[in-house]
């Protein structure tokens, strides 16, 4: 995949904001077709052939989990999008499989909406989530998209360390006074040739460091849903309609 791309930050169930952002980016909703009862029939296509790349965390915390999954899944099935796996997506898949997980940090919102689904539909949702790659290397290696980022030495590799980094960022094993994990600032030391676009850690404004950019601007926390247009290197954002969840700590500036 060589683009051009519209790379979209953490959705977290904000399906209405996603629709508004896609429309602002010039994407067009396609005429209704006979949709799958689980996924629905909503999909989008760009008249100029742009492709959408989602940075993961489609689910949890927000109001429309299944609709968000349906839009992303249908765009992927239509060949106009790709999505990397987020840590919230991965945990939801484990819940859908009936594995023991703590229903917290927004998973309760997903569980409340999806608990009505039968065993078959839960398995289909889990299959889709588990099919998502950990990261994408695009445009001949000039662009890397990973949910929480990816340091230069881990790019092109596949290992438990890569999985942990893609889902959670640079871990330190320490927690702050709120009991939240303290992450290393890998982007401050990044010197790779590939531009890395990521999310995971919500920030008040898209944050550029070296050849990286964090585009999780906290839509579910009342911030904005942001897209990064590549190769133009332009930011496009839409405000959240409301504050759906309260962040454990203020958004980073």
Brief synopsis:
Helix content is 25%, strand content 22%.
Write structural notes for this entry.
The chain is an alpha/beta fold. The chain has a single domain, classed as 4-Layer Sandwich (Purple Acid Phosphatase, chain A, domain 2). 25% of the residues lie in helices and 22% in strands. The chain has six helices and 14 strands. Helix 2 links the parallel strand 4 and strand 5 (81-83). The longest helix has 13 residues, at 65-77. The protein is globular.
List the helices and strands and how they pair.
Elements: E1 5-8, H1 15-24, E2 28-29, E3 44-45, E4 51-54, H2 65-77, E5 81-83, H3 87-96, H4 107-114, H5 119-130, E6 135-138, E7 143-146, H6 160-168, E8 170-175, E9 181-184, E10 195-198, E11 207-209, E12 212-214, E13 224-230, E14 234-239
Parallel strand pairs: 1-4, 4-5, 7-10, 10-12
Antiparallel strand pairs: 1-13, 2-3, 6-7, 8-9, 11-12, 13-14
Which terms would index this structure?
single chain; alpha/beta; Purple Acid Phosphatase, chain A, domain 2
Question: What is the alpha-carbon Rg in Å?
Answer: 17 Å
Shape: globular
β-strand percent reads 15-25%
- Number of E-state strands: 14
- In which range does the helix fraction lie? 10-25%
Going by CATH, what is the homologous superfamily? Metallo-dependent phosphatases
Secondary-structure arrangement, i.e. CATH architecture: 4-Layer Sandwich
Largest sheet: 5 strands, mixed
Strand order of the largest sheet: 5-4-1-13-14
The number of distinct helices, counting runs of at least 4 residues, comes to 6
Number of domains: 1
CATH topology: Purple Acid Phosphatase, chain A, domain 2
Distance between the termini: 32 Å
- Under CATH at level 1, the class stands as Alpha Beta
Query: Would you tell me the structural class of the helices and strands?
Result: alpha/beta
* Low confidence ranges: none
Mean pLDDT score, rounded?
Answer: 95
Order of helices and strands: EHEEEHEHHHEEHEEEEEEE
């Amino acid at each position: 995949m060589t683009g051009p791309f519209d790379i979209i930050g953490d959705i977290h169930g904000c399906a209405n904001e996603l629709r508004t952002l896609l429309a602002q980016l010039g994407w067009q909703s396609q005429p209704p077709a006979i949709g799958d009862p689980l996924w629905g029939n909503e999909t989008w296509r760009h008249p100029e052939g742009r492709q959408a790349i989602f940075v993961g965390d489609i689910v949890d915390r927000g109001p429309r989990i299944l609709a968000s999954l349906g839009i992303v899944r249908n765009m992927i099935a239509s060949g106009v999008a790709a999505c990397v796996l987020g840590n919230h997506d991965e945990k939801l898949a484990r819940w859908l499989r009936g594995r023991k997980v703590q229903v917290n940090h927004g998973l309760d919102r997903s569980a409340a909406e999806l608990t009505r689904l039968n065993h078959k539909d839960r398995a289909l949702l889990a299959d889709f989530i588990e099919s998502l790659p950990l990261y994408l290397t695009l445009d001949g290696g000039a662009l890397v998209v990973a949910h929480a980022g990816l340091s230069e030495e881990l790019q092109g590799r596949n290992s438990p360390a890569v999985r942990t980094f893609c889902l959670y960022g640079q871990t330190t094993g320490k927690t702050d006074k709120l009991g939240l994990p303290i992450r290393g600032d890998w982007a401050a030391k990044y010197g790779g040739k590939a531009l890395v676009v990521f999310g995971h850690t919500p920030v008040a404004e898209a944050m550029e460091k070296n050849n990286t950019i964090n585009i999780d601007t906290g839509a579910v926390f009342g911030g904005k849903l942001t897209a990064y247009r590549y190769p133009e290197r332009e930011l496009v954002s839409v405000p959240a309609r409301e504050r759906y969840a309260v962040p454990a700590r203020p958004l980073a500036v």
